[in-house]
Design brief:
Two copies of one chain form a homodimer. Chain A is mainly α. The first copy, chain A, folds into two domains: 227 residues, Citrate Synthase, domain 1; 102 residues, Cytochrome P450-Terp, domain 2 (Cytochrome p450-Terp, domain 2, Orthogonal Bundle). The first copy, chain A, is 56% helix and 5% strand. Chain A has a three-stranded antiparallel sheet. In chain A, a hairpin with a 2-residue loop joins β3 and β4. The first copy, chain A, is globular. In chain A, 55% of the residues are buried. At the A-B interface, β1, α1, α4, α5 and α10 of A face β1, α1, α4, α5 and α10 of B. β5 of chain A pairs parallel with β1 of chain B.
Amino acid sequence: MSEYLPGLAGVPATKSNISAIDGEKGLLAYRGYPLEELAANSSFEEVTLLLLDGELPTANELKDFDEQLRSNRAVKYNIRELMKSLPITGHPMEMLQTAVASLGMFYPASECLTDGASCEDLQYVHNMTVKIIARMATIVAMWKHIRNGYDPIPPRDDLTYAENFLYMWTGKEPDPLLARILDVCLILHAEHTINASTFAVLVTASTLASPYSVIASAIGTLSGPLHGGANQKVVEMLHEIGEPENVEAYIDARLANKEVIWGMGHREYKTKDPRAPILQSLMMDLMEARGGKMSKLFEVAQVVEEVCEDRLANKGVYANVDFYSGVLYSEMGIPTDQFTTIFAVARSAGWLAHWREQLSDNRIFRPTQVYTGESNRSYIPIDKR
Amino acid sequence: MSEYLPGLAGVPATKSNISAIDGEKGLLAYRGYPLEELAANSSFEEVTLLLLDGELPTANELKDFDEQLRSNRAVKYNIRELMKSLPITGHPMEMLQTAVASLGMFYPASECLTDGASCEDLQYVHNMTVKIIARMATIVAMWKHIRNGYDPIPPRDDLTYAENFLYMWTGKEPDPLLARILDVCLILHAEHTINASTFAVLVTASTLASPYSVIASAIGTLSGPLHGGANQKVVEMLHEIGEPENVEAYIDARLANKEVIWGMGHREYKTKDPRAPILQSLMMDLMEARGGKMSKLFEVAQVVEEVCEDRLANKGVYANVDFYSGVLYSEMGIPTDQFTTIFAVARSAGWLAHWREQLSDNRIFRPTQVYTGESNRSYIPIDKR
């Protein structure tokens, strides 16, 4: 038996050709393309197709895929009714896990629940993927309105994925710069090798469970505070700090107490998180477009970044993708506790690429255990204990 | 980096003291107690507490636990409304994943969604466990009635777990022998080391996700046709055979075509599945109690077993736990496609024991990958592809 490594750290659990991280150099690439190039030139729709198929699509392939996404944005009204029956006090990630699990009943993947033969059918896998990626954004945006007691804003099919997503939150014509920023945020969060939620995809998929069950499992895994949710913590921290002049004292107190500074450092990167400078630059664009008139949150974030750069850069700790994405989502009017649901929408692209890859060479996950318990005990009647 | 083993076969993924299998000898023990002794002497309530705490409870401990289970059987009427909004054509396992995911919103585990400190609080873990195990049976039995258009039968608190479960399906005073058989079925399915769904528990739990999200993830994993669902296949096969005189030709044709005989053999046991003879003996008790007047399904099952014993015993292939449990559930009036939901109810005991064990020494799962994809590609504008 191989050595026991807690959390399977360093243990290869799959062969994959979807993405790669070079933590020493601070590089992340999807299908071999550096993330910086994709963020600068591509769209979430194109990146999704790249993740799924392995190649940049032709213009026609992208057009077809985009049309499929657009025509699958709407969800049945019974899903709206189901969402209305959920307590508004619940966490949006619990809502999302519930709603996605229910999709399998509303839009059956019944082929996958029988002998699994059709699971190898690429067209089937492609269709399921489109339906899930298209509808998750709708469900997430619907929840903002439903939990406030309003009817959700139906999706539009004349907008890009990011534009429509932004539109469904606000009901207003999407601001082009904010839509572009959201598009880039979705690209940056779409995939990140084998983390806990993507690993949950592989484990659940390996029993040939339906893709809805697979994504619901991944959403549950992402909901844990050790995985998703860091950008929510960043914004909560910025609100707690309150004013730019409070930053230094706050950060130094946390450092002295060895407390986490949310949004700083990343276990995978020994140097800068390659996604952070991309968002930092978009944050600057947004500030410029607004003539320097930014929200208090934005101002506090800038000072936090400066102070942390001063205190932590010599230890190789820099702002990560979560630091900026939370601030940017706040500027879009998205409630703090829904940030992780946007992460899930973006990551659904990577999860479904891994679902497809798992099916292409499937073996059910059944690791073993180091048994440390009792042996050879005999039952004792309850009156003799 | 360690060697890549597909499905992590033989790779230790956890230290555990909950259960152990000796596949060569055909032994299964929970906390060191052989399953045969527990099935003969114990109850599902006691076995659940044994799995959770590691020791057989005193009479007072068991009484307290049983009272907690009894008082948590009811579910809020909004959960019933949510279930009514689900399509009756969906698979019951999809319903169960949806409903359990929603429980986190109805009965918040909010402590677990913040910094996780209270996750180490044993009382909190114990309370969540009771609530989930008590309510899952209610939800599963409710679905039988809701999907037929009837109001569900509310649980009773004057019955044991198995008696009440049976009562909620039929609305009749539970037959003592059938209740005992169901109790034993629950004991036999409560735990089975690190299979795919239990592994999903560990992965999802490792991010400190709420126990509802953890169990929803496990249910999704169990729903796949390579994992749960074998006893459903057994009964479908028996119905397909139809008459005792068809058995020989049917089995021989399947063997000649190298097709699976559902309910025969088990990958973990080189000899007999230790759970099978226990259920076989209960099947005989039931036949005797009915003066030999059994259903057609029961008669066909007996002949299938004889024919398979003749053809396969020399290869070490015997009837497994799924072969008998499906036949017995059919005798209880439980619909075939709900068998896997009963498996999930029983296994919730083991899943929650593993949840607790994972929290006691947690490390987030983040295995690595063997990267087999492209590197160093450059983005090509769409008109140049």
